[in-house]
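Project standup — Tuesday

K.O.: blocked on the structure for the chain from last sprint. Re-posting the sequence here as requested.
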Amino acid sequence: MAKTATAKDKTNHAAQALRDQIADGTLGAGDWLPSESQLIAEYGISRYAARQAVARLVAEGLVTSVDGKGTYVRPRRERARHADTRTLTRSPGGFADADTDTWDQVEDPATYRTTATEDLALALGVPEHTPVFVTDRLLSRGERRMVQRLCVPFPTVTQVPALETDPFRTPGDTYTELAAAGLDLTWSESVQAVIASPDDAASLHSAPGTPVLITRRTATDPTGRVLVMEETRRSADGTQITYRITPV
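H.V.: unblocked you, prediction finished:
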């Protein structure tokens, strides 16, 4: 006996059919997707299933929904409109970042003390619930926005007198104080692309479903212990991140 397609199967089919039409150009950049009524009639699905199918494409960054108008195919850009260079330099005056130092601060930093969640504890290499000092900055460059977060775990603060006095600093100032305390620093960085959360979309002024590039830079001592972690979040739409590579 033939298996009857479930509502989930029909939703998956409708979503995949729309993906295929976007991929082969049947639905080009800027084209409007079929209306809910058209999707219901064409794929034999409910109104809820039609909305779910479109919501999946929004979450994947393929389309953008406009209240009261519908949903259109987002343009695919092969060439980045924004090229951000991630590098760190040291001079007698301290440390400078060719990327974040060229952005303007939108508002006063938010500073607070928290405890390490499971994810943050793993990133910092400290036990869960370890006190962490956090500085959040909202930066801008023209119409673009970026969120920068600096996390300094309590063990690092107790090791550096200047940070005990004021743990809420810029990354460059923090690296300068660590070096002044005699710590030999090594940096590593990772990049991850995720779909923007509602908070990220609001902070970055990006459309729902737009991917966000998250960079995480950790400064470690010779033993590999993480001393501080810097995180940035920026829209991935049309953005390219460039790194200077030094052979090891």
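K.O.: great, moving the ticket to review. Residues 7-73 form a domain with the Arc Repressor Mutant, subunit A fold (CATH 1.10.10.10). The CA atoms of residues 152 and 228 lie 5 Å apart.
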